[in-house]
Amino acid sequence: MTPVGKFQKDIFPSYLAYGLIDPSKQLSSPSISIRQNIHFAQRARPVSFLHEDHCVAYFKPVHRFLIIANLAICLFLAAFSFASAQAIPTSGASSTESLIARLDQVEATLSRASLSDQTYAELRTELNAIKTEATAQKERLEPQLQEAQARFDALKPAAPAQDGEAKSDTQAPSLTDPLQLQQSSGDEQDNAEPTTAAAPPAIAGPNSETEELAKRRNELEAHISELDAQLKLVTSTLVRAEQLSNRITVARQQRFTSQLLERSNSILDPTLWVKGLAGLATTWRVAVTLMTDWSHYISNKASEQIWQILATLTFVFLLIFGPLRILLFRGLSRLASLESPTALQRSYFASWAMLVYTIFPIFVFWAITLILINANLLPDRIELLFKHLSFVIFAGSLSYGLARVLLAPGRPSYRPLNLETGDATRLFSIALALIITFMVETLFDEVDELLFAPLETTIVINGVTSFLVALLVSLGLRMLIAAQPENDGTTVLEEEKQGGFSLPRFIRFLQPLIWLICLITATAPILGYVSLGAFVAEQLGRLFIILGLLGIFSALIDNFLLEHLSSAEGPQKRISKAMGVSTSAVNQLGVLLNGIVRIFLYITAALLIFTPWGVESTDFITSLQNAIFSVKLGDLTISPINIVGALVVFIIAIVLLKSVERWIEQRWLPATNLDSGLKSSIQTSLGYLGVIIAAMVSFSYMGLDLSNIALVAGALSVGIGFGLQSIVNNFVSGLILLVERPIKTGDWVVVGADQGYIKKISVRATKIETFDRATVVVPNSELISNRVMNWMHNGSMGRIIVPIGVSYDADPDRVREILLAVADANDYVTSYPAPVVYFMDFGASSLDFDLRCYVQDVNNSLTAKSDLRFEIFRALKEANIEIPFPQRDVHVRSVTLPEELKAAASQQAKKPRKRRARPKADEIDIDDAQTIDTAEGDADAADD
């Protein structure tokens, strides 16, 4: 029995017995809501209460207990009935119809003109809810349709016989054409003729089927048609919701652009200044009048009770505020008293100081506002003014705290930026002036409607503040860039270990963009675009605040993870022992967590920066998904704006991907145990992948259909193939080198007559650095097609051979002992595999031995050979074992010389040798000294 039936059978008579329900009134609904059960006694007329006995019985304690028990049971059963009714899923058709009705309402609202931003936001929220429900229905219908189709395929009749008879009329129609399903089913019913007598039973054959099977197949046909129709209707609903969402996006962008580019009088117009100053005086009088009225309001409301309430609230405020102030500033002073703070302590100080400088002023203001509101001393207009002031004070205190933390004029050891104290003090003064300017502009923008400020006054104030913002930002940027030292090759990881963060690199990278923004901010009010100048100035300040907060929180997360997960002095060992993993795994976990948090911070900062420009989080995520997963965006017209936008998107994508690649190269890969060659392969592959992703994103932004590009590339493939054959060959060879990895970065290879270390495997060629510090560029195709000797392909271990020759008088066994002892004593030689000595040959003048041993790193082979030769020479000399040199006995037969030659030789021997006179030292040219010595040596050789 259902809860409703139980209520009507058991509890309903009890209500009749005690007169709580009029029996003449029937229940209009099979289910009873909670609200109806609660108000039964209020809505029903207690007709039986008029009887005295009933009144007396009603007020008996037992009866009251029964009434309360019945009411509790009724409420419980009604709530259970309501939950059960909610749990029962509605049919697909009715839910889809409700979605279509809601879409009709959204479209009708969009057709109206002059919608506010709040209305657009509400419509966007409604469309997102509709798309979520439609997606859930689609995900529910698709498996049902597939299951029904599978069952239908199992019930298909057997194939027709080979004698050519026609196919069965019950052949299943196509799933993609539900109309054909309905039409075929209808035709079968129309063509069926009524029979007066049952047909004789047919003889069952291999292709025959029973009526039950045909009936079941027809039911499945109808079910498939219904599911397919619902699925198409839900898909159409999704498409329509997406189209309406795009309409909202376009409408908001058009509204934003029209408001931003609305032109007014130039800031240089004298009449504008006259009207603006006059309006400013009027606004001041309105403000004075408002304050006067407030003072009269307080005087009229003032009483002894009001002052008591005010004093009590003030005491409570001081009671809470005093300990809180002591707690905040005591923690800040404790951190500031450290003489040599660590990087994590500096990050703690920056975060704590930001909290104190931001929370303290706004907390005091909110407390005062609360006291005045509870004392009923704030009229409506003054309360609205206080709300605007709270926002201005919050923005100002946040900006002040950020400037105080980043520049730290009085604490050089806690300064994140690498600035001198004088530069930091001057920059802090500029930052204070900038904060005051922003606060004045923001305050006037918030209260201009409250004070009935004229339009001319608003234009003048916005124009002047925009120009001042541009001037102050330009001065501060110039001073900041001039005060920053040149890049000394310090990596991001080293900067973070020193306690800083890469905000100056951000500023250096954004320097041209900030100069352009300052130029627009200063010139827009002059040209009459005051709204544009004020908006850009506001976004410039917003950009600085977001980047500063991003730097502080990034440094805090980095230093925290570095201290606790990546530092050997931290709790890395305890975490490693508790998790049962190695310290290297804990280090990698810290790096990955750092990367995830950084991505979250960067996405949040990007959303905060681009939100005022009309970009919502849902739009941002949807656009990112479309750019990554959907290359084909449709047949869109390519315009120069799209091309420029695509180039900008490509550059931004390249910069972002390069930053990710740099982070992987400098942070993640050093934390792994991978060899240098595999690290280089990963870096190169990421570079290729980054360029491909950036190209895909830019193509998607332009709306190019890659299938058309493929057709054009296919038509030009022959010409491109002949022209770029070598380049493509080298590129493919480079990919093979990265995947197959016959060589890696850092390997010692021999290619032809050249040998050295591989420095980089690029797209077209591989760079090899020889031992003479020369670079040899080898095309990748040669490394694939030609022979390459890699000393380090299977590892860094290598074998060295030292040949030695000793005299025939030496004992070979003694020589072997000496050589093995020398090898065992060498630090580079491994104990396993053990060194061996081979007696190679009986030489012409020596006994030839080979000392063969292994070194752990083949890069040390030359040093190991040299050390072994030194020690072998010393050991053989101490053992009196001679190392002979090649000796030959030359036998010369006696030859009888002619008498004339003997006489000439004797006369030549008797002549004294004549020496050439050497020039004086002051007569010799320094450049010709070598030439003179060479010529003199040649002459002496000729004389000899």
From TrEMBL:
The Mechanosensitive ion channel MscS C-terminal domain covers 802-883
Q: Where is the composition biased (Acidic residues)?
A: 924-944
Give start and end of each DUF3772 domain: 234-285
Q: Name one GO cellular component term.
A: plasma membrane
Q: Name one Pfam family in it.
A: MS_channel_2nd
Q: Which UniProt keywords apply?
A: Cell membrane, Coiled coil, Membrane, Transmembrane, Transmembrane helix
Family, similarity comment: Belongs to the MscS (TC 1.A.23) family.
Report what the protein is called: Small-conductance mechanosensitive channel
Q: Tell me what organism the protein belongs to.
A: Cohaesibacter marisflavi
What's the source species' lineage? Answer: Bacteria, Pseudomonadati, Pseudomonadota, Alphaproteobacteria, Hyphomicrobiales
